[in-house]
Write a sequence for this structure.
């Protein structure tokens, strides 16, 4: 598909051609023919350039609804020649990525900005890979369609503060792992003095914990009852889970019949968010 | 230097039958200066393997059997009051040796596990506000029961990262079993072998391993592996850069055992599954992780 | 998007400025200078922080430009206004240059400028700057981050040449009659159809080339005999002469002159219709219907000659105009003063035409006339008297004008012929080069039934005719005066052709051939080209296939960038390709070394080579050994091994 510049170029070549015909000027003929054949060679190169680029996969990191994320398109050049200046764009969008060049036998990735509108499994809009190398006369393109549906987590929205009833009493101090002792400072609470150790060393020692002790949090659907809209409730839970994971709490999530026990780590967060993303709200109180 | 290690491997194979690959990998792990995690059912020769290695390398070997009621102090040691001198003296626990076999690590409480892993990471322990350095070299070979067994506390993901490699010991083949059944008790054989290394020799080898070269092509390959593990559609946990560095260390050690001073992608592949298995598996267990590691290796093209 | 600077886009700036300058020297100075002014301004804006013109101002200026063109030319259609507009627009667009779009617009404009230049001149000298500008414009289109841009462009050009050549030769030429007639009314300074005193002298000061002529068939070797007719002036005003209607010549009735030969003239464009021919020409062959043959043996083109034109003419020695003149050819203005005295006296003294002609010759030969490029201005009621009897300084047109007027007043029908005399012979290309310096005027008198040539200059300054205008005018004025009648004298310079001359001849010859090729490649020669193509059908088809194959191979090989693939990879890829053909592909995730080992086991014939390659890859890629130049050797060995195996 010729670019706008390509169309303009064609028009100009035509004008020059008529000039040549009109004045029967062979020098202009030579000039025009050379111009055209360079352009055609350029166009062949453009197609060849795009031909060798292959889409290896389309991948999205965590995407939250209504938040801008970056979708990665993995490109592969399996040929012996480099592919130049490839860019990508979503269908019906004008937001072009930067242009990359692929060395022979290499893989590169392009990052497309993408803002999903709703949670759950969605399919990505069609991605167009294109290049106008070398002269910008022609835009050669190729579609990349991801067959897999991708999971969009709910929008993170609501109150950042954790609900009051999420902190369960147990494990206030035990959850942190004992690390070592340090000498007592006047601001330390008396309850933290390790009397046994202090007796041995003839100075007051305070227990140091590996991590600042954090209570385990438990989130549940019922905690968000004050919100009317089910989607807002999901968003609120999503925000809490995300915040809890970020701040290193261990937490549990209970929504309807689904229950994720107390745990921490990336996998746990993933599971919780997935549950929220796919939540059907009809059957919930 | 590596001749001695080959001798060690062949000696060890005489005692621990049909476990050539595992012995070699365990040796690689030691040469890379990393800790080893062995997962399998009891009675497949885990303990023997460790004992043989300890004996042959001449490292001071201790064994700690982890149980649910084992306290951190039981492994690390503690302050004991000396009535004569009227003061507390630190009594080092079994952890203060060069080769520690932490048997059935996942039976211990998370707290005790944590204490051990802390020591592994830092090479020292702190008791009552005083730091006590552990001897050098310091290796932990931990064994753990398969995931599903009851009464276990699975190691958290972050702790698993502290082991350089994980191995699976499988049951011996039938022929080996026949030989074992009619032959000598391996524990008897154990008494006949002698240390092959004198003090300091292992550490010297460790330094040589560090000097093994890694070409850009090989580093590229490892980076590709890491990158691929982070792609969508790959089931295992995404690999960290630390995992990549572990892979380099292990590959260097393997190359050293092969008698080379540079790493080939082939070396990387040899150690790929043991190094990445437990990291990829995460909460899903080492067995799954190993399957994913194999898939990862298959999926990643090796650059020339 | 960040702003782009025009002058930091070196390729674009260079080629665009070149193109502008090339066209700029051909159009009115005001637009040329204002465009250059805009360029300098833009440079100042970008480098010295001058105040730029806003888009609004340039927009207003564009409109002003259109208005000015309308005022100056009263039309937008036609060459002159369009070039002016083109150049003005170029300057303004450079001023506006800011982003990618402007860049592309300028590139297109640059292409137009370069090709428009070809309308003015086909000279080969312009090919170099044109080609540079052309390449530069393409170069500037390549993406900025691309490495080896020059090489890529060179490859693209190399690949484009065959297609361009084929198109050039194969494309049918159509002549659009309506397009040709659009000539500009203002011609170049040059030959005009009026003979005012000083007119030819003015021309003779210019060394611009008028035409080149190939005379090899005619056998003329001497510049003295080359009289190029341009026009005939029948109306005498005394010293000056005016053109008049000559009328179309009636078709030739009598038999052709037995011995005639063809010669060729390549005429530079001069916006007029003159077709210069050698004295003694009986027929001019140009395109059908484009030539007009007029009385007085002169020829015109039907349309102004806006482009270089090549035509052939038939010449035979001794061919003379025999058309009898009418009364008009005796008409003169009234004779007065000493002129009248002289005429009356001569009429009395010499009765016959022969005697009268002799008297006229004596008048010029025996009085002390000076032949000079700077004769001063003649005017007043009796300029003839002033010239003949007082100042006695003149250029050829003065002598010719005076001679013809006197001849008429003596009763001999006569006319002035203007054109060129002589030329410079180029031994390399075997052609004559006639420049404005060779401008000349002479007289023809009707005597004994034919028009006879009389050249008063040959009596006043014969040296001018013998050594040619160029050498003659290179003499100092003193020398011209002293040696004018000394036919044997030669200017003191190295005899023979100097190296410089040789180079000049060579370049001129090249230029001639180029122009000739371009101009002469018209429909007829294209037809013959196709004809010859049809004759050699088979060979041509084979040739074409050959060219295509070469083209495809070139395309494939030129873009294989070996430098980007490491040596070991090249080797490995070679093996891989071979093995894939044998159905032994590399397994997914298999290391190269393992693959090679496996192949070595499976293919005993190539085992050695595979081992060597494996070793090389191992050492080079992994062990970091610097094994340069070995891969070539290995590749050769590998090829041998493969051949041996198959």
């Amino acid at each position: 598909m010729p670019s706008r510049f390509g169309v303009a170029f064609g028009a100009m070549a035509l004008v020059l051609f008529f000039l040549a015909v009109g004045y029967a000027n062979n020098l202009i003929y030579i000039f025009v023919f050379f111009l055209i054949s360079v352009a055609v060679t350029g166009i062949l190169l453009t197609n060849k350039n795009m031909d060798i680029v292959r889409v290896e996969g389309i991948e999205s990191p965590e995407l939250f609804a209504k938040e801008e994320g970056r979708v990665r398109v993995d490109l592969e050049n399996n040929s012996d020649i480099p592919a130049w200046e490839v860019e990508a764009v979503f269908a019906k969008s004008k937001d072009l990525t930067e242009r990359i060049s692929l060395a022979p036998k290499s893989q590169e990735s392009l990052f497309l900005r993408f803002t999903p509108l709703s949670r759950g499994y969605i399919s990505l809009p069609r991605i167009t890979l294109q290049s106008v190398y070398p002269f910008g006369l022609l835009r050669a393109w190729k579609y990349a369609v991801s067959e897999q549906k991708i999971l969009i987590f709910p929008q993170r929205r609501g109150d950042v503060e954790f609900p009051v009833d999420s902190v369960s009493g147990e494990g206030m101090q035990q959850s942190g792992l004992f690390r070592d002792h340090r000498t007592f400072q006047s601001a330390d609470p008396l309850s933290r003095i390790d009397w046994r150790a202090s007796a041995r060393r003839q100075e007051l020692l305070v227990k140091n914990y590996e991590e600042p002790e954090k209570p385990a949090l438990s989130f549940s659907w019922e905690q968000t009852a004050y919100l009317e809209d089910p989607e807002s409730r999901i968003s609120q839970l999503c925000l809490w889970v995300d915040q809890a994971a970020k701040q290193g709490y261990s937490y549990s999530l209970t929504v309807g019949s689904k229950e994720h026990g107390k745990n921490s780590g990336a996998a746990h967060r993933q599971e919780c968010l997935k549950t929220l993303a796919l939540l059907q709200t009809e059957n919930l109180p | 230097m590596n001749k001695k290690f080959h001798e060690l491997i062949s000696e060890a194979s005489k005692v621990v039958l049909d476990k050539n690959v595992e012995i070699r990998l365990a040796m690689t792990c030691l040469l890379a200066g990393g800790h080893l995690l062995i997962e399998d059912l009891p009675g497949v020769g885990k303990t023997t393997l460790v004992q043989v290695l300890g004996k042959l390398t001449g490292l001071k070997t201790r064994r700690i059997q982890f149980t649910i009621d084992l306290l951190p102090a039981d492994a690390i040691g503690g302050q004991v009051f000396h009535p004569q001198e009227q003061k507390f003296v630190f009594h080092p626990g079994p952890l203060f040796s060069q080769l520690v076999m932490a048997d059935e690590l996942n039976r211990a409480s998370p707290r005790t596990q944590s204490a051990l892993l802390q020591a592994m990471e830092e090479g020292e322990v702190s008791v009552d506000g005083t730091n006590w350095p552990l001897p050098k070299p310091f290796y932990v070979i931990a064994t753990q029961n398969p995931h599903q067994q009851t009464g276990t506390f699975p190691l958290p993901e972050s702790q698993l990262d502290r082991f350089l490699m994980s191995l699976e010991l499988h049951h011996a083949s039938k022929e080996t079993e026949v030989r074992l059944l009619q032959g000598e008790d391996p524990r008897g054989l154990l008494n006949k072998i002698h240390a092959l290394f004198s003090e300091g020799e292992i550490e010297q080898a460790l330094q040589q391993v560090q000097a093994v070269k890694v070409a850009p092509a090989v580093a590229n390959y490892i980076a590709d592996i890491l990158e691929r593990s982070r792609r969508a559609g790959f089931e295992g946990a995404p690999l960290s850069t630390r995992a990549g560095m572990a892979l380099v260390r292990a590959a260097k050690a393997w190359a050293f055992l092969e008698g080379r001073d540079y790493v080939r992608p082939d070396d990387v592949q040899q150690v790929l599954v043991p190094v990445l298995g437990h990291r990829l598996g995460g909460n899903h267990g080492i067995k799954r992780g190993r399957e994913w590691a194999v898939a990862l290796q298959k999926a990643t093209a090796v650059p020339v | 998007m960040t702003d782009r600077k025009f002058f930091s886009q070196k390729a674009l700036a260079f080629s665009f400025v070149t193109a502008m300058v090339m066209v700029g020297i051909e159009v009115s100075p005001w637009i040329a200078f204002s465009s250059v002014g805009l360029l300098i301004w833009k440079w100042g804006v970008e480098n010295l922080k001058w105040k730029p013109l806003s888009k609004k101002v340039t927009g207003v200026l564009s409109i002003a430009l259109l208005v000015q063109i309308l005022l100056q030319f009263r039309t937008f259609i036609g060459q002159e206004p369009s070039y002016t507009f083109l150049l003005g627009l170029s300057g303004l667009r450079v001023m506006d240059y800011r982003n990618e779009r402007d860049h592309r617009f300028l590139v297109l404009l640059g292409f137009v400028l370069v090709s428009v230049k070809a309308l003015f001149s086909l000279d080969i000298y312009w090919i170099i700057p044109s080609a540079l500008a052309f390449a530069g414009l393409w170069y500037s289109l390549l993406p900025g981050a691309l490495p080896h841009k020059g090489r890529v462009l060179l490859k693209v050009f190399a690949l484009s040449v065959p297609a361009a050549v084929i198109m050039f030769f194969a494309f049918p030429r159509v002549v659009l009659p309506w397009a040709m007639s659009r000539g500009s009314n203002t011609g170049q300074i040059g030959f005009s159809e009026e003979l005012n005193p000083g007119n030819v002298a003015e021309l003779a000061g210019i060394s611009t080339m008028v035409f080149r002529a190939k005379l090899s068939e005619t056998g003329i070797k001497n510049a003295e005999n080359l009289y190029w007719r341009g026009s005939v002036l029948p109306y005498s005003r005394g010293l000056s002469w005016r053109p008049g209607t000559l009328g179309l010549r009636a078709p030739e009735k009598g038999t052709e002159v037995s011995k005639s030969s063809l010669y060729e003239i390549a005429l530079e464009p001069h916006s007029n219709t003159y077709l210069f021919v050698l004295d003694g020409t009986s027929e001019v062959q140009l395109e059908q219907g484009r030539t007009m043959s007029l009385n007085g043996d002169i020829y015109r083109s039907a349309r102004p000659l806006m482009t270089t034109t090549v035509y052939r003419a038939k010449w035979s020695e001794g061919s003379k105009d025999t058309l009898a003149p009418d009364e008009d050819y005796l008409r003169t203005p009234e004779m007065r003063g000493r002129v009248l005295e002289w005429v009356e006296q001569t009429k009395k003294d010499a009765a016959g035409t022969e005697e009268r002609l002799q008297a006229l010759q004596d008048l010029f030969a025996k009085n002390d006339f000076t032949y000079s490029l700077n004769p001063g201005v003649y005017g007043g009621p009796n300029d003839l008297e002033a010239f003949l009897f007082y100042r006695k300084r003149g250029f050829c047109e003065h002598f010719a004008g005076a001679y013809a007027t006197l001849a008429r007043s003596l009763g001999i029908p006569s006319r002035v012929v203007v054109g060129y005399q002589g030329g410079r012979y180029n031994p390399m290309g075997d052609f004559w080069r006639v420049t404005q310096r060779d401008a000349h005027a002479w007289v023809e008198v009707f005597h004994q039934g034919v028009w006879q040539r009389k050249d008063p200059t040959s009596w006043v300054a014969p040296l001018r005719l013998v050594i040619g205008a160029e050498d003659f005018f290179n003499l100092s004025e003193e020398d011209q005066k002293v040696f004018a009648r000394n036919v044997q004298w030669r200017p003191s310079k190295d005899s023979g052709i100097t190296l410089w001359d040789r180079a000049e001849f060579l370049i001129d010859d090249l230029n001639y051939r180029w122009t000739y090729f371009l101009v002469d490649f018209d429909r007829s020669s294209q037809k013959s080209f196709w004809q010859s193509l049809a004759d050699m059908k088979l060979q041509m088809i084979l040739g074409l296939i050959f060219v295509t194959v070469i083209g495809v191979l070139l395309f494939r090989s030129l873009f294989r960038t070996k430098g980007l693939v490491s040596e070991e990879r090249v080797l490995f890829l070679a093996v891989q390709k071979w093995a894939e053909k044998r159905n032994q592909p590399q397994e997914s995730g298999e290391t190269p070394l393992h693959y090679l080992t496996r192949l070595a086991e499976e293919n005993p014939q190539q085992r050695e080579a595979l081992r060597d390659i494996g070793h090389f890859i191992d050492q080079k890629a992994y062990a970091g050994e610097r094994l340069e130049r070995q891969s070539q050797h290995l590749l050769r060995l590998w090829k041998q091994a493969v051949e041996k195996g198959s």
